[in-house]
Design goal:
Rossmann fold; alpha/beta; two-stranded antiparallel ribbon; 232 residues
């Protein structure tokens, strides 16, 4: 009888210990508390990672990732008609698809330069700026000359002012450099050096070349600035 009573007391003690340990873990005393069993432990972390993911755009069939997007586009005489119409359609589609966290800027170069926004600062992709950019793009016409350096330097200026974490510059050209009074290899080499110097924040500079393009410049441009070159 004494042995049975001792065994009974031991079992009662073990039961109380188990109950206390479970209660301690459920009330926050243990390190493994998980109040909502339907969510994984890292649910909050996953949400933060999704918010931090870069924007993905498709431009001329190429994928680019970033939350700061800046376009350097050709409006030389060779773009008259469908070529410039396609440039405008591609940019308008991108702009309309941007989320509000995107910052963007657009330049068109010929012998001169026109750009959006007019204050030379990156635009926030809210409804008002997207509508303004779309209207501005609708007014763009082809010009003459091909001083691409103007467009690249303006894009870099805007990208350097951007608060976005990942800034992407997309250069598009459809011919060889013909900047009036300042073309050829000396012009190309100077622009490459100026871009490399101005790109101190290491933005990705990419190139899309269309038609009979002199590839030496866009190839060097992308190699020096962590980008890619694509021939269309």
């Amino acid at each position: 009888m004494r042995l049975n009573r001792t065994l009974l007391n031991l079992l009662i003690a073990l039961g109380l210990f188990t109950f206390s340990a479970q209660t301690f873990a459920q009330t926050g005393g243990g390190a493994s508390v998980k109040e909502n069993l339907d969510l994984p432990y890292d649910a909050i972390g996953l949400e933060e990672e999704d918010e931090d993911a870069p924007e993905v755009i498709v431009f001329y069939g190429q994928n680019y990732e970033g939350d700061g997007i800046f376009y350097c586009l050709d409006r030389s005489s060779s773009t008259r008609g469908e070529p410039i119409a396609k440039e405008k359609r591609e940019v308008i589609r991108n702009v309309q698809e941007f989320t509000e966290r995107v910052e963007f800027g657009i330049t068109f170069y010929d012998r001169s330069l026109i750009f959006f926004p007019s204050n030379s600062r990156p635009a926030k992709a809210d409804a008002g700026q997207k509508a303004a950019a779309t209207a501005w793009l609708g007014s763009i016409q082809s010009g003459g000359g091909s001083c691409f350096g103007l467009g690249l330097k303006k894009c870099l200026d805007m990208a350097n002012q951007s608060s976005a974490k990942r800034n992407v510059i997309i250069y598009l050209g459809d011919g060889c450099p013909t900047c009036p009074g300042d073309g050829g290899d000396p012009y190309v080499n100077r622009i490459l050096n100026e871009v490399k110097t101005s790109n101190y924040k290491k933005h990705s500079v990419n190139a899309i070349v269309v038609g009979n393009v002199c590839e030496s410049f866009p190839r060097q441009l992308t190699q020096q600035n962590n980008g890619t070159m694509t021939r269309i």
